Amino acid sequence: MSAEQSAALADDVVTADEYKASYRRFAACLLQAGTTVQELGESYGVINYAVPESAMESGAMDRCYNLEFQQVDMRWQLSNEESSETAHLLQQCLADKNLPPGDTVNERLEILEDAGLTFDDCT
Q: How far is Cα 60 from Cα 77, in angstroms, rounded to an integer?
């Protein structure tokens, strides 16, 4: 893990600026390894991207992700779980099925389970 990623995690809170800076370091690492990142925009505060298969095969993706982005990315997504795409999908699914909305992702999943449904029934 890079010193910058460690510093972003030091206070147990990942800010939007730290998240975006970590992503930029990840993309720069891949560029330095000879590959590019296709940026697909953001949804629900999460950066969406794609990398060529060659980056996976060469190990550059894993190396750069682990070095610059993995822990920050995971912390960011977990700390923003209630505003995630999954949270919104579950909320809409429950509404479509005339079930109570639930306040958290976990509650929504429990409501689905109690109704005999799974997350796959929402997609």
A: 23
